[in-house]
Amino acid sequence: ITGELGYTLKDPLLENSEEAKAALGMVKKESPLAGSSEIDTLIEKLESLKQKPNLLILDDESIYRMRIRDVLGNLGDLSNLIHVYDAGSYKEATDVLNHTKIDYLICDIDLSDKINDGFSVLSKTLEKYPSSMVLIHTNRKKPEDINKAKTLGACGYCTKPITEAILVDLLLNKELWPSDFRKRQSEQPRK
Question: What is the pLDDT of residues 87-103, one digit of tens each?
Fold first, then answer.
C-alpha cells in the first residue's frame, strides 16, 4: 500500500488507517521534504567516498527502524550507497559497534534495557568513533534530554517520526537541533 508521499505500508491491516499513516509520518505535511538539489548533493558526496558509510539505527520498536529504512529507500539511489545496520537493544547496538565503524547513528533514548539507554550508546559510539554523527530520535521532548544529548556530543535531536529532510541533513553532516534550542548551527556542516 503506497501513501501519498510514496511510503509503502507493509501491513495490510493498516491500509485504510489514516491514524496509522499519520503516526508513521506517511501523510502529507506542511513542512517541505528534502529538496532534489540536497539529495543530488548527498548522492555526489556518497559516490565520491572510497567506502560506503555505515548507518546504525537503534530503536527497540521495530516499526521505527522500518520507518527509517523506508525513508532512506524513498530517497532513490541513497539506499545503495549506505550500509544500514539495525539494533533493537543496547546489546545488539554494542555488538555492531564492536565489529563495525559507525559513521552515523540514529538512536532512541528509551530502550527496553532499563540499565542502559540511548545516551549510553551515544557515549559509547563517540568514545569509539569520535567523528560519528549521532542523531537522537525519540518521543521525549524535555529540554533536559535535549541538553544531555548535546552535552554528550550528539549532532542533533528530533522527535519521531523522522522525515526525509532530517535524514538528508544528517547524512550531509548538519547539526539538527529543535528550533527553540539551536543558534542556527544547522547551516554549518560538522567536521
Answer: 999 999 999 999 999 99
Main-chain phi, psi angles of 58, to 5 degrees: -115, 115
Q: What is the pLDDT of residue 61?
A: 94
Calculate ∠ Cα 53-40-159, nearest 5°: 65
Q: Count Cα atoms within 13 angstroms, Cβ side, for 142.
A: 5
pTM of the full structure: 0.74
The three three-digit cell numbers of residue 67, written as one number? 520507518
The mean pLDDT of the chain is 78
Residue 29, phi-psi category: left (phi > 0), alpha (psi -120 to 50), beta (remainder): beta
Helices (H) and strands (E) in the chain, counts: 7, 5
